[in-house]
Amino acid sequence: MKVLLLSPAMFGREGGIERLMRLYLKALGEICEQEAGTVESLCLSDGRGGTGPGLLTAYSGKSLRQHRGFAHNKLRFALAVLRRARGSDLIVCGHINQLIVARVARLLNRKLRYCVVAHGIEVWRPYGLLERWALRGADRIFCVSEFTRGQMLRFDKRLTPSRLKVVPNALDPQLAGKDSGAGHNPPAAQRRPTILSVGRLTRSDSYKGFDTLIEAMPAVLGEYTEARLRIVGTGDDLPRLRALAAECGVAHAVHFLSRVGDEALRAEYAECSVFALPSRSEGFGLVYLEALTQGKPCIGAKAGAALEVIGETGGLCVGYGNVAELTAAIVELQRHPPEAVALRDRAQEFSFERFHERLAEALPR
Question: What region holds the Glycosyl transferase family domain (predicted)?
Answer without folding.
Answer: 189-349
